């Protein structure tokens, strides 16, 4: 078997593995192997084939790193509305406990609620969910002008 077929067979195996795992990095490795196969077809020696595969893989790796959307470091999943649809929803808190917590009935269940950092002292009223930490809702005072029920 010639070297080009070995490269292309390896590329095919990596494409199948990428389809099973869903990672673009295996696809980049497969493209690198395909470049090695093209180099072998062009008659380059082992060093040229490895160089073509390596350069293609490194360039592809940087391309995937640049293309893949990065989440900002300050945004975590527990406060991201794209992950938790509860973020931004309103809850009504009737009474706060002395320890700064309250019980809230939300979505048919009882939740524990706490004020978000920097919020003024707790009082009964409408609050907006800012984060969800386990079974606790971290809430902030709801703006008075934006009423949910007209």
| Count of domains | 2
Spatial extent as radius of gyration: 27 Å
- Total beta strands: 5
Main sheet characteristics: 5 strands, mixed
Based on CA inertia axes, which overall geometry fits? rod-shaped
Q: What portion of residues belong to β-strands?
A: 15-25%
Reading the helices and strands in chain order gives HHHEEEEE
Ends distance: 76 Å
* Relative helix content: 25-40%
What's the quaternary structure here? single chain
Average of pLDDT: 84
Count of alpha/pi helices: 3
Strands ordered across the widest β-sheet: 1-4-5-3-2
Structural class by helix and strand composition? alpha+beta
Poorly predicted regions are none
Describe the protein in words.
By secondary structure, this protein is an alpha+beta fold. It folds into two domains: 65 residues, no CATH class; 65 residues, OB fold (Dihydrolipoamide Acetyltransferase, E2P) (Beta Barrel). The mean pLDDT is 84.
Ordered list of secondary-structure elements with their pairings:
Blueprint: H1 3-21, H2 24-41, H3 46-67, E1 90-93, E2 101-106, E3 109-115, E4 125-133, E5 136-141
Parallel strand pairs: 3-5
Antiparallel strand pairs: 1-4, 2-3, 4-5
Helix pairs in contact: 1-2, 2-3
Observed structural traits:
3 helices, OB fold (Dihydrolipoamide Acetyltransferase, E2P), 150 residues, five-stranded mixed sheet, 39% helix, alpha+beta, 2 domains
State the gist of this model.
By secondary structure, this protein is of the alpha+beta class. The chain is 39% helix and 21% strand.
